[in-house]
Amino acid sequence: MTQTLHDRLKALPCWTGPVDPRPLGGGITNSNFVVDDGPRRYVVRVGQDIPLHNVMRFNEQAASHAAALAGISPSVRYAEADLLVIDFIEGQTLDAAGVRARLPAVVDLVRRMHHGIQEHLSGPALSFWIFHVLRNYLRVLRRKDSSPPVELDRLERITHELEQALGPVETVFAHNDLLPANFLDDGQRIWLIDWDYGGFNTPLFDLGNLASNNAFDAAEREAMLALYYGHPPDDALRYRLQVMAVASMLREGLWSMVSETESTIAFDYRDYTRMNMSVFEQELEILNIMRG
């Protein structure tokens, strides 16, 4: 944290007394700080727009406000164009095993998010149509000449095939980034945080994202679908979920490929790319088996 930023955060008009902002771990599209203001603790999220990744801070702030009103996320206490102050949640950041262990509560949270946030959302809001996101990343990578054209051709073909396989969808306001670290358990309930990628999308993307990012096995995916939809899934729904699990991991991999050369945040994007593209290939193999 630079002295200039530290001074700026100290001077925010939302504080009731002197504060000393401290860096907080986490965040690979923004910087996070923790602030104690009297007996209360807050998180300050600082980040610029990142159009390349579909991250626009006005949209993140609107989604954060709506999620708080819906009881999904911590309350928003203050905002500026590139800055958001929210309540600090005392609790455990989940890992993938923790998400799987709390499956009913996690799915209930996702379902309430899909049906509740848009009731509180005000002003302009972005879409996050996953296949547009994938095509845009592929265009960026072609311009950069950072990947072999034959590999990009393959990924572009797969993107087209996935979109055709998915077919018509319903639309909700989705989170679109259901990594385990975005779930917090305070011992009484689970919270969902970080709305950088919030936008209108199909709920199946969040479900595929949840399953692929948290290493759900076949039984856990079956249970997730039954919990979300209220009835056991049929083969068609299982197939469409797998389509979105593949799309989710391809997006994570392409996001990281682009970030390798674009991001200034200290993070091992190259290793993250390798990990996510490996899982993408595993999910694609499952989809190919389902196709017969």
UniProtKB/TrEMBL annotation:
Transmembrane segments: none annotated. The lineage of its organism: Bacteria, Pseudomonadati, Pseudomonadota, Alphaproteobacteria, Acetobacterales. Pfam families: APH (PF01636). SUPFAM superfamilies: Protein kinase-like (PK-like) (SSF56112). Residues 22-229 form the Aminoglycoside phosphotransferase domain. Gene3D superfamilies: 3.90.1200.10, Phosphorylase Kinase, domain 1. This is Phosphotransferase. CDD domains: ChoK-like (cd05151).
